[in-house]
Sequence to fold (153 residues):
Amino acid sequence: MLHYEASVWALSVSPRLEKKLSSVQRIFLLYVTGSYRTTPTSALQAITGFMPLHLKAQQEAIFINVTCLRKEIEFEGLSYQPRDYEEKIKNLTIHSSLFNIINQISIAEPYKKDNSLMFFTDGSKTEMGTGCSYCAFENGIKVIEWKGKLEKF
Fold:
């Protein structure tokens, strides 16, 4: 709840706000750990593995700005580019029950005009185990093949 709208305010956290967030977090860290009130906040954060709230808010702000708002962010000498992160598919334009898979699978022989390398991969999981493989063809001739299978536990 403290991080509500962090993408708006967290990139420019003042030292005063940083101290307030730390004091709020400290109360909960003391309660969670059962430590003495003289224990430093940084020690409590290290023991519990909780990130300081101002850093968590900044992390959240950078993530939202870059991935959702698709903005380029420059923060503490580091550049975060939207193109470095995958975009979520917003929505399907067709209902999955209406998707005709038969028209999407080609049984024709693959062909490339420039005769470059072509890679094929496959993987499956059955009651007998999980495995995968790949092979590469150059000018229609298999040049490499690899198969792997996971051990059963």
About this structure: The chain is about 30% helix and 20% strand. The mean pLDDT is 84. The longest strand covers residues 129-138. Strands lie at 73-75, 78-80, 118-126, 129-138, 141-149.
